[in-house]
Amino acid sequence: MKTTRKCRALLSVGLNLVALFFSTTAFITTYWCEGTQRVPKPNCSKQRRHNCIDYGVNETDQNKVHYSWETGDDRFLFRRFHTGIWYSCEENIHEAGEKCRSFIDLAPASERGVLWLSVVSEVLYILLLVVGFSLMCLELFHSSNVIDGLKLNAFAAVFTVLSGLLGMVAHMMYTQVFQITVSLGPEDWRPHSWDYGWSFCMAWGSFTCCMAASVTTLNSYTKTVIEFRHKRKLFEQGLREEQNYLDQEAFHYFRDRSLHWKNLFCLNVFTYIYLSMYYTSCFLSSFLDLIHFQHIKHIMYRQNTVIICYANNFNL
């Protein structure tokens, strides 16, 4: 039981750690959405000779009329961009590198409140993941004390579930804000085509690991409680059987003791009656002997008196 519970705790800690790593990485990176933007091609220069409009050698002469034979999409350049929660970065067509802008400033004014709410939810999501991870580690280190481990397990499960719900809400709100920004954002930023990036996949992977960790933690808590209830039931059943056995032994013991005392009492009564009758008979015998002796003595006294009187009369 202890080994199984420790394995489940290790699995929960591992899933929570993966969720924390994924969520933190997604929060600080700018690859939630990526795609291309269609922008007009810049003029060719000495530094730039590709993906530009070439007007010839006299392109700096203001008196010359410049003609461009490029039409349709040939006049535009498709530059790549990627966007995160904080920044949106696009390729710089004039020089090497990228140019980044705040995504909060790019979002429509009506959606900035929702975007800030999404940011706050993401922060709370990460903080609750940290709290859940700490509680799971404490439970793992206090595995010898089952009661304290169960309490920590329950709190860790609650915090992990709450963090998962906040993370889901935050991801959905950001997706909604981005889609609205694609339609109503600045003209120079609106993407021509876009798709979700690896940061977005990591964010939802973090949510999946978080919910898996919470389910594993709840499962561990439930299994431990069920095992304790089963052991308690077996203990109470054995205690009742032992109590019934002791009651039966006590019943037989007191029954035998009562029979013994009953027999002893009867023996004592019979002995008392016998002794009483014996001493009574002895007393009566002695009393009768005494009466008989007194009677004989009285008779002899009378006889002696008669003899004395008779002698006196006859002068003997």
UniProtKB/TrEMBL annotation:
Regions that span the bilayer: 9-32, 123-142, 154-176, 196-222, 264-288
Transmembrane helix keyword on record: yes
GO biological process: regulation of cell communication; regulation of signaling; regulation of transport
Key words of the record: Cell membrane, Membrane, Synapse, Transmembrane, Transmembrane helix
InterPro entries per record: GSG-1 (IPR012478), PMP-22/EMP/MP20-like (IPR050579)
GO cellular component annotations of the record: asymmetric synapse; glutamatergic synapse; plasma membrane
Domain of life of the organism encoding this protein: Eukaryota
Membrane topology of this protein: Multi-pass membrane protein
Pfam families referenced in this protein's UniProt entry, alphabetically: GSG-1
Cell compartment(s), UniProt: Cell membrane; Synapse
Keyword Amino-acid biosynthesis set for record: no
Family in the record: Belongs to the GSG1 family.
Protein name: Germ cell-specific gene 1-like protein
Upper classification of the organism: Eukaryota, Metazoa, Chordata, Craniata, Vertebrata
